Amino acid sequence: MSESSEGLVARPVNALLPGRIGMLVRIPTKPGARTAVLDVLNRYVDAIAVHEPGTEMFLVCLDPDDEDLVWLHEWFRDSDAQVAHQQSTYFHRMMEEMPPLLAGPPGIVRIDPLRLHLAGNVVDESI
Q1: What separation in angstroms does the CA of 40 have from each of 58, 97, 98?
Q2: Does the residue 27 lie in any domain?
Q3: pLDDT given at position 7
Q4: Does residue 94 lie within any of the structural domains?
Q5: pLDDT tens-digit profile of 27-63?
Q6: In degrees rounded to 5, what are phi and psi of residue 121?
Q7: What is the C-alpha to C-alpha distance for residues 43 and 24, in angstroms, rounded to an integer?
Q8: Residue 42 is part of a domain; what is its CATH number?
Q9: Mind listing the pLDDT tens digit of every residue in the chain (127 residues)?
Q10: pLDDT for the residue 25
Q11: Is the pTM of this model over 0.70?
């Protein structure tokens, strides 16, 4: 087990997630535009906690085999939270900024989360 900066063992997070709505999103960027897309996504993520409390997880991932591809994994507390996400000002701003940077439309697959295990040290900012 890992230890936090105070020497305490960091507990993992385990949760069942009934009723959540999830999405896996494949974002193909124009050649060389991945950094610009990541900038757009990072500005969006910075606003989620305040403006989308029902967006419980938003994970931005790099594709290790394609430097022009970004993946998102996101989940929402329920269908009302997903609707609020799609109607938020910050989501609309992201949807205005991103299209000129994309090589094609994003691919979206619904994958509803069922169970979560997250090692306790993952969220320890001192690591």
Answers
A1: 14, 7, 7
A2: yes
A3: 56
A4: yes
A5: 999 999 999 999 999 999 999 989 999 999 999 999 9
A6: -75, -10
A7: 19
A8: 3.30.70.100
A9: 444 455 566 889 899 999 999 999 999 999 999 999 999 999 999 999 899 999 999 999 999 999 999 999 999 999 999 999 999 999 999 999 999 999 999 999 999 999 999 888 877 665 4
A10: 98
A11: yes
| 72 token code pair | 């998102």
Structure tokens, 126: 């001192």
Examine residue 1 and state whether it is found in any structural domain, yes or no: no
**Number of domains the chain contains:** 1
Q: Give the structural domain span for 21.
A: 17-115
Which pairs with CB-CB distance under 8 Å and at least 24 residues apart come from 37-41?
37/70, 37/98, 37/101, 37/102, 38/70, 40/94, 40/97, 40/98, 40/101, 41/70, 41/72, 41/94
DSSP 8-state symbol, 8: P
Q: How far apart are CA 57 and CA 113, in angstroms?
A: 10
Decide if 124 is inside a domain: no
